[in-house]
Amino acid sequence: MSAYAALTGAGFRAQVRDKATLFFTFAFPLLFLVVFGLIFRGQEVEETGRPYISYIAPGVMSWGVANAAVFGVAFTLMQWRRDDLLRLIRMTPTRLPAVLGSRYVLALGVGVVQAVVFVAVAMLPVFGLELDARWPLALPVLVLGITAFLTIGVVIGSYADTPEAVAAIANFLMVPMAFVSGSFLPLDMMPSWLQAISRVLPLRYLNDAVSAALSGRGGLDDIAVGCVGLVVFTVVFGALALKTFRWSNRT
After folding, report:
1. Tens digits of residue pLDDT in 150-186
2. 3-state class (DSSP) for residue 220
């Protein structure tokens, strides 16, 4: 068995056994969908005339998938480095691409399952999300989004030395980003200066592209712009992740 397969298998078993983390990875974003979905049930955004659920469902789903990618790899790298596992792995023929690749595959698996569950709940009659014919395009968008946010998680996991530090840094980035990027409230309701700020945030591009694919709120050009934006963020944070990655707290 290759080192990549061994690390992927070990990571999968660890995730399945950690029932609490598994539950909150899927239930926490769903809670936001249920709360916001019930509050704005049957209502439309005044500025566009579109139902709130067509904003809330793709937005909260994108935030949930991005959140899982960031927290998952950040906590794992911090914990492995603190327990000296990464230093031991480095003493074997295992290379960095195998370590990060195993976490990438797990993040993709979690993200896809999250998206399927999320869309299924959003389509229940009580919420009433109607999928656009372009919904399959959401899958490659999600892959690009998970990739971009995984690189951010690697940076956080390489910098933070404690679980508290990981949670503080990740929440400091992800919670404000969710509000400014329109995950919880439609960007159309926000002032123009706040919409301008959102364009430097990766979650804005993930939200826009997923919304255009799932609910038809936007065209193919919005999906293309979102994908390009996510690729740019992946390149930037990927380079930063490779530069900041640490095998041990001693280095």
Report:
1. 999 999 999 998 999 999 999 999 999 998 988 887 7
2. helix
132 Cβ contact list (under 8 Å, min separation 6): 213, 214, 215, 216
In contact, 127 and 37? CB cutoff 8 Å: yes
Give yes or no for residue 21 having a pLDDT over 90: no
Structure tokens that stand for 25 in this block: 């990875």
φ, ψ at 129 (rounded to 5°): -70, 130
DSSP annotation of 160 = -
Confirm if 61 and 36 have CB atoms less than 8 A apart: no
91-134 per-position pLDDT tens digit:
888 888 888 888 899 999 999 998 999 889 888 888 888 888 88
In three-state secondary structure terms, 147 is helix
Cβ burial, residue 2 (10 Å; 0-12/13-18/19+): exposed
Q: Residue 84 and residue 5: Cα distance in Å, rounded? A: 20
Residue type, 186: P
C-alpha span between 22 and 15 (Å, rounded): 7
Contacts of 92 (CB under 8 A, 6+ apart): 3
Locate all alpha helices (DSSP H) within the chain, ordered by sequence. 3-17, 19-39, 53-82, 85-90, 96-122, 138-159, 163-180, 192-198, 202-214, 220-244
- What residue has token string 């095998």? 247
Q: Are 166 and 234 in contact (CB under 8 A)?
A: no
Here the tokens at position 36 are 């916001």
Rounded Cα distance between 173 and 67, Å, is 10
